[in-house]
Amino acid sequence: MRIVIKIGTSTLTHSTGLLNIRRVEKLCEVMSDLKNAGHEIILVSSGAIGMGVGKLSLKTKPSDIPTKQAAAAVGQCELMYIYDRLFSEHNHTVAQILITGADIQNEERNRNFQNTLYRLLELGALPVINENDTIATDEIVIGDNDTLGAIVAKSANADLLILLSDIDGLYTADPHKDKNAVLLSRVDEITPEIIAMTSGSVTNLGTGGMQTKLHAAQIATAHKIEMVIANGEEPEILYDIVNGEEVGTRFTVKK
Q1: How far apart are CA 71 and CA 44, in angstroms?
Q2: Which of 20, 31, 18 lies closest to 233, judged by CA?
């Protein structure tokens, strides 16, 4: 099975913004084990700007574009160093790919991206993909890594897209405010009612927001790729998702 796993900043870091070492080590161990079992793994990882903020000893996350891009440049090095070290412990080779919206929109550049991605998988490498925040602008930005995960899954012709975040999945209402909110284990069709669930207070549930995750689900399922939203607090949940167990919210594909 070819699997794209998107890991959000909230999964990678503590509330302090610093790296959650235990969780990241466990995530890399589980992904390595899935790879050993014969699955092809592609990782879409957030965290570059946050890592850069820490590395540069900035007191707050920057609001201006040049400083964000500088932090991303520093943080991406740190992020890849961590992934290279942790995956190497399990005898897996990582490769970095940084893309922008323009790389997806331009036919030739998108084809080059796909060719590189496929060849890396053929060579047994584990691609780590992020948006190129150092050069992205409002005109060429993809904008969020939920959407990026879906675009990568589409480009890779993946079988499964997993979005790991700080939420358990899609609820019928905001569980922080409504005690009767129910976690939807399966979504067989993205109906107007499902879309409406993300237009109110649920919109900002989770760090990345539910609307971006629903948008990713629309892209994925339209290209016959199942998608799961799940809480990445316990990395071993990846085993359950890959085995088809009912954890998080699974967006299914019509047969």
Answers
A1: 19
A2: 20
pLDDT tens digits, one per residue of 7-45: 988 888 887 777 889 999 999 999 999 999 999 999 999
State pTM to two decimals. 0.90
What order do you get walking across the sheet with 126-131 strand by strand? 94-99, 126-131, 40-45, 2-7, 160-165, 226-231, 249-251, 186-187
